[in-house]
Amino acid sequence: MVATRSISWPHSNFVGFDNLWNELDRHLTAGIDQTSTFPKHNVIKDDEEHFHIELALAGYSQDDLEVVVKDSVLTVSGDKADDAEVNYVHKGISSKKFSRTFRLNENVVVSDANFIDGILRVDLQLVIPEERKARTLDIGSSKPA
Q1: Model's pTM, two decimal places?
Q2: Which of 39, 53, 56, 64 could cysteine-pair with 60, CB 3.0–4.6 Å?
Q3: How far apart are CA 44 and CA 27, in angstroms?
């Protein structure tokens, strides 16, 4: 039986974040899925506007991988055909099919993806539109109409 959790801090201080609450609640109640731990990855902040994700994919080739961005979700998937002719005494390097998703902020753009030495690097950039950047308003003294 899965226990249902809900976020208990005051929602009134966070206007317009309804989807965020639903997303957090969905993740908290889903439990830990074993498939979500593969492949191992790093999320690295290069500076205030640039990030990158590194995924450890030893044994995979560039042709085995797919990177898709849709509706603020980055999905990295891989499908490597097993070599049936190889007689493994021990097989410690995974070649299983996987799909790993990363939820992106609406202002994050995937700018590049490179696969070098068994590491897939996906570059991300935070692009804030001019109208959403912080600005200072002049305070007037007239009454609203």
Answers
A1: 0.69
A2: 64
A3: 22
